[in-house]
Amino acid sequence: MPIVLQSSSGKLFRRFGVYLQCIATEADLICESLRRGADATDFLIEQSCEIRMCALSLMNCNSDHSVAAAAAMMGIAKEAKARIEWMIKMKELLDDFNLPDDQLMEKTFFAPGGHVDDIASSEAAKTTRDK
Description:
The chain is mainly alpha-helical. It has helices at residues 14-35, 43-58, 66-90, 101-106, 116-130, and strands at residues 5-6, 12-13. It folds into two domains: 5-98; 100-131. The protein has a two-stranded antiparallel ribbon. Strand 1 (5-6) and strand 2 form a beta hairpin. Helix 1 packs antiparallel against helix 2 (43-58) and helix 1 runs parallel beside helix 3.
């Protein structure tokens, strides 16, 4: 559920809600990782902390790039949520850096089917049909 902030004048600040959602989802990822046995100094924990700090800093962004920054934070929150769901489903800690490349590709979270190869082969088939 997206977070929406509203000022006294009734103006909606959806952009701030995206940043807060990213901060909260990264915090959930940190908690789930720690529950699964991650050390506080693990890369994933440190990366999530950095992302949370960036999201907090970007809340003050009022330039032409603020929409792009909010979109990036939305994507990062989506990735974090997928990682949390994966850890809950598999009942293990997600550790991208100790996996061989072929297994790492199986844990790609943005791909609809979870596999980049499936998307690449379907795109290749589509391109071949279009010719």
